[in-house]
């Protein structure tokens, strides 16, 4: 497989490998290559300050990479192993059914063996606290959840024990960024560590992106990510989004990525949206209920004296056997 790589002299290989691991840039789905004088380290993106080149690498075999094949669990339980889990930088986060909990450490070790780029594997025991952070139990590797996650060439410092971050929204974040027009004022009401805001600032040309979050730890990480990605149009703000939006200029675009309760902030956000502006709202509900949610939002807007058009509604991912996470692009098109 063709990949970007960093070429280093043999004596320097291990120290550079560790640096790339720490930055979340080493592509450990590929085998490291060598010749008489150099080691070639495959990377996911070009590291700052290091020269890269392209080279063909051998991919790890399916057997080496399928954790379900490697997991040392009773055969009767193998079918219960989850087909998906989240990877954030060099850590894996997985949910397990109750039957597999006694075998969690074996599952964790299999994850690390299947994907050598991983440093740690964690069991997701659900969300806790006011800021809905993850209750994580280490099941293999280091008990350290802070990592650097790479997404479309951008790097984000994340720690799921301290601040919400969803790696499964990478494509959605890039989609929204591509819609932003030059000079727009954007308000990200629930910004977390800043992935939507920074993606927009890096890939589009907004006038300003106000990025709000209630969680002080998230805003601290967001400020670090703004510096890490060298963007100057993102303004991190800590506090209640419902209060902040009335202290900020009206927006051309509002992002509401708080699927459990974004609809509760709908009226406040709509009053601060410019005519012709767009709202990107994310919502969790039963699959058969989403159209009704959209209809209710349109009616609520009509009751506020404005016309709201649904530009797009899409199911993004499964949340439970009956519910999914949905996205909606809503246009404030005029007065009634």
Task: Spell out the key features of this protein.
336 residues, Alpha-Beta Plaits, GMP Synthetase, Chain A, domain 3, 4-stranded antiparallel sheet, 10 helices, 17 strands, globular
Give your account of this protein's structure:
It is a single chain. By secondary structure, the protein is an alpha/beta fold. The protein is built from ten helices and 17 strands. The chain has helices at residues 13-22, 62-65, 67-70, 104-114, 170-179, 195-203, 216-228, 241-244, 266-271, 290-303, and strands at 2-9, 33-34, 38-42, 53-56, 86-88, 91-94, 120-128, 133-141, 147-151, 154-158, 185-188, 208-213, 234-238, 251-256, 273-286, 306-318, 323-335. It has a seven-stranded mixed sheet, sandwiched between helices. A hairpin with a 4-residue loop joins strand 16 (306-318) and strand 17 (323-335). The longest helix has 14 residues, at 290-303. It is globular. The model has no long low-confidence stretch (mean pLDDT 94).
Q: What separation lies between the terminal Cα atoms?
A: 57 Å
Cα shape: globular
Computed CA radius of gyration, to the nearest angstrom: 22 Å
The name of the CATH topology of the largest domain is: Rossmann fold
- Please write the CATH class name of the largest domain: Alpha Beta
Main sheet strand line-up: 13-12-11-14-15-17-16
How do the helices and strands line up, and which of them pair or pack?
Blueprint: E1 2-9, H1 13-22, E2 33-34, E3 38-42, E4 53-56, H2 62-65, H3 67-70, E5 86-88, E6 91-94, H4 104-114, E7 120-128, E8 133-141, E9 147-151, E10 154-158, H5 170-179, E11 185-188, H6 195-203, E12 208-213, H7 216-228, E13 234-238, H8 241-244, E14 251-256, H9 266-271, E15 273-286, H10 290-303, E16 306-318, E17 323-335
Parallel strand pairs: 6-7, 11-12, 11-14, 12-13, 14-15
Antiparallel strand pairs: 1-3, 1-4, 2-3, 5-6, 7-8, 9-10, 15-17, 16-17
Helix pairs in contact: 5-6
């Amino acid at each position: 497989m063709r990949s970007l790589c960093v070429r280093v002299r043999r004596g320097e290989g291990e120290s550079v490998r560790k640096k790339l691991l720490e930055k979340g840039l080493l592509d450990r789905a590929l085998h490291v290559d060598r010749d008489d004088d150099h080691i070639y380290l495959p990377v996911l993106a070009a590291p700052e300050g290091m020269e890269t080149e392209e080279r063909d690498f051998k991919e790890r075999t399916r057997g080496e990479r399928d954790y379900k094949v490697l997991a040392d669990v009773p055969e009767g339980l193998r079918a219960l192993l989850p087909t998906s889990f989240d990877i954030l930088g060099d850590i894996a986060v997985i949910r397990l059914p109750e039957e597999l909990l006694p075998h969690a450490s074996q599952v964790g070790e299999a994850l690390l063996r299947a994907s050598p780029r991983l440093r740690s594997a964690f069991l997701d025991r659900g969300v806790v606290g006011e800021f809905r952070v993850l209750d994580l139990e280490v099941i293999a590797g280091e008990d350290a959840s802070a990592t650097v996650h790479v997404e479309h060439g951008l790097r984000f410092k994340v720690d799921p024990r301290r601040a919400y971050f969803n790696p499964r929204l990478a494509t959605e974040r890039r989609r929204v960024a591509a819609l932003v027009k030059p000079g727009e004022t954007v308000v990200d009401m629930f910004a977390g560590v800043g992935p939507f805001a920074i993606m927009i600032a890096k890939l589009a040309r907004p006038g300003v992106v106000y990025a709000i979050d209630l969680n002080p730890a998230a805003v601290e990480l967001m400020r670090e990510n703004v510096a890490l990605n060298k963007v100057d149009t993102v303004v991190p703000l800590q506090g209640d989004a419902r209060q902040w939006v009335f202290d900020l200029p009206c927006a051309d675009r509002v992002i509401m990525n708080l699927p459990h309760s974004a609809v509760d902030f709908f009226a406040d956000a709509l009053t601060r949206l410019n005519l012709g502006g767009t709202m990107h709202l994310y919502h969790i509900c039963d699959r058969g209920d989403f159209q009704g949610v959209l209809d209710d939002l349109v009616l609520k807007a009509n009751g506020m004296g404005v016309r709201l058009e649904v530009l797009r509604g899409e199911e993004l991912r499964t949340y439970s056997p009956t519910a999914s996470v949905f996205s909606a692009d809503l246009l404030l098109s005029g007065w009634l």
